[in-house]
Amino acid sequence: MPLVLTTRTVATSAKCSLRPVAGRRWQFSLPRDERCGVPTQKPVALCEQVINLMSRKGDIVLDPFAGSGSIPLAARNLGRRYIGIECDLKTFRIMKNRMNGARR
Question: What domains, with CATH codes, occur in the chain?
């Protein structure tokens, strides 16, 4: 099932929303309590919405540019298995700390 982005708000929750802005850019809010200093970080709630649309429980979610770990964290929250790949050691440590600190 393909994910289709339109010119209206496509994802909203109590924690984040995704809205189109001029051109091809999309804008979303990042909750203060999730910020960890990675410039391209996405809100976990937004990642959860996309993962829910594109996978089922037990599926494997691959994130080849894992960054701060929002996608692996969202996948784990939703009962998916995950593979997160990050080549920058500093960013990898941020992801590892986030994943260890958010254990359920």
Answer: 11-101 (3.40.50.150)
pTM, to two decimals: 0.71
Within 8 A by CB and 6+ apart from 101, the residues are none
Q: What type of residue is 17?
A: S
Tokens 């937004």 locate to 46
| Residue 101, both tokens | 């600190």
- Give the phi and the psi of residue 82 in degrees, each rounded to 5: -150, 155
Burial (CB count <10 Å: 0-12, 13-18, 19+), residue 71:
buried
Which pLDDT does position 32 carry in this prediction? 80
